[in-house]
Recover the amino acids of this structure.
């Protein structure tokens, strides 16, 4: 790589307000945990403790559920227009505090500040705005069906997009007249707790949104609790199966958004430069901590050498390092556990005979780091081509015909997303119809919008979030 000698451009953290210790947000106030236990949330780039966060036990979960059930009695009777005002107010306050939210997201999660600032926080606000507009139009969204709220929604979100996933879950639930108990991931709880402060400041009635923190055991208690009428989970397929069983036991409505192993397909008639950028964005955005990441690349044989050469050249230009630096392209891996998982798969890939490529780059001495990585000479049966790695690791294969790439792309237990790069509209329509994926991007990748539904098939889950589809998941009907 040519040395650009870019001067550091760090975002300041001096303007943010973080407490040293966070309690549980239940019934409109922050409350000490019944467990009397707290755990540390750590900056993955520096390994420094940012704050201590309460660990909710079974009694805390019960308190939150009861608060939500009580609040539902009045919240569900409010007019849609009134509910919309509250949701709109939350959206505006997220915008007003956007710089603070972005910095906290980057400190707690390790993603580059550019991504937090330009993608996560604006999209979170946009989801609240979007569903604020639907709150008084449910009868128009579902004509002749008499939509009704479900009741209490128990929601569990992952660590890769903490604030955005909270918005995906909370906004449609509130618009439909439900109340919420939400649990963020234990490694990234801070933006959800900052959102709790916004909700409190916005004057949302007590108990309508409750945010409790803890690890997997807390989530299990939420799923097993008798009160929730709805479970919504985003995370790994392994845990999603446990949530599914809990929903069956309690006859709860369920939405699951789980893992993925997306195929990103480049045809020889594609705009190659644009496709290379799409490949980079598809797998290295947020360090590959994306369920819909384009982690399997299929390149038509006739342009394989050209795509690979340009891809490696582009990888050489990526800057890995301090997530708070505005020059950084790839930040820190979210946790030591996740870094160990990624490193295990790198070893597996080499043992399976694939060829590894990583650009030469200086990694900070402290923190969790993995350079952008690609594997060539990958076989369909290789584990790196079949299993979700959830890191900046790309497995590349070639193909000759449309039929061949469709078979290869669909040969996975997952079905969340895919990408197609071609100059021919007919090819796009043929592929989007044939690929077993909930979302297919054409000549772009990782584009999200509140109006567009998102979700998967097979072991990537079921149900949709976003758009009108996202409302239906939080309603029952009299038809």
């Amino acid at each position: 790589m040519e040395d650009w000698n870019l001067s550091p451009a760090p975002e300041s953290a001096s303007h943010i307000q973080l407490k040293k210790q966070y309690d549980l947000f239940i019934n409109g106030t922050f409350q000490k945990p019944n467990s009397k236990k707290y755990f540390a949330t750590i900056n993955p780039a520096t390994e420094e403790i940012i704050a201590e966060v309460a660990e909710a036990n079974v009694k805390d979960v019960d308190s939150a559920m009861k608060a939500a059930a009580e609040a539902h009695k009045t919240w569900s009777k409010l007019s849609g227009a009134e509910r919309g005002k509250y949701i709109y107010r939350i959206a505006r306050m997220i915008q007003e505090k956007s710089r603070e939210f972005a910095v906290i997201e980057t400190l707690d999660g390790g993603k580059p500040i550019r991504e937090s600032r330009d993608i996560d926080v604006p999209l979170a606000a946009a989801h609240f705005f979007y569903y604020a507009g639907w709150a008084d139009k449910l009868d128009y969204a579902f004509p002749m069906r008499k939509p009704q709220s479900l009741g209490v929604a128990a929601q569990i979100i992952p660590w890769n997009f903490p604030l955005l996933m909270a918005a995906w879950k909370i906004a449609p639930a509130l618009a439909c007249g439900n109340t919420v108990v939400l649990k963020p991931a234990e490694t990234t709880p801070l933006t959800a707790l900052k959102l709790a402060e916004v909700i409190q400041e916005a004057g949302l009635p007590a108990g309508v949104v409750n945010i409790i923190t803890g690890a997997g055991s807390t989530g299990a208690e939420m799923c097993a609790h008798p009160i929730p009428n709805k479970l919504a989970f985003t995370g790994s397929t392994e845990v999603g199966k446990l949530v599914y069983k809990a929903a069956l036991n309690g006859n709860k409505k369920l939405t699951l958004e789980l893992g993925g192993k997306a195929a990103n397909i480049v045809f020889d008639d594609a705009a190659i430069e644009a496709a290379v950028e799409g490949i980079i964005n598809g797998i290295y955005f947020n360090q590959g901590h994306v369920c819909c990441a384009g982690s399997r690349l299929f390149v038509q044989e006739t342009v394989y050498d050209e795509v690979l050469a340009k891809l490696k050249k582009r990888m050489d230009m990526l800057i890995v390092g301090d997530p708070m630096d505005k020059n950084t392209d790839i930040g820190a891996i979210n946790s030591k556990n996740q870094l160990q998982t990624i490193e295990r798969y790198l070893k597996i890939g080499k043992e399976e005979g694939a060829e590894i490529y990583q650009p030469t780059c200086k990694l900070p001495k402290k923190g969790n780091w993995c350079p952008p990585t690609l594997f060539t000479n990958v076989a369909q049966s290789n584990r790196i081509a079949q299993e979700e790695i959830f890191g900046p690791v790309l497995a590349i294969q070639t193909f000759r015909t449309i039929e061949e790439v469709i078979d290869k792309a669909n040969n996975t237990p997952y079905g969340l997303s895919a990408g197609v790069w071609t100059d021919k509209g007919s090819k796009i329509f043929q592929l989007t119809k044939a690929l077993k994926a909930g979302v297919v991007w054409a000549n772009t990748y990782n584009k999200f919008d509140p109006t567009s539904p998102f979700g998967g098939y097979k072991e990537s889950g079921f149900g949709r979030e976003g758009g009108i589809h996202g409302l239906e998941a939080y309603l029952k009907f009299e038809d």
Notes: The first helix runs from residue 58 to 75.
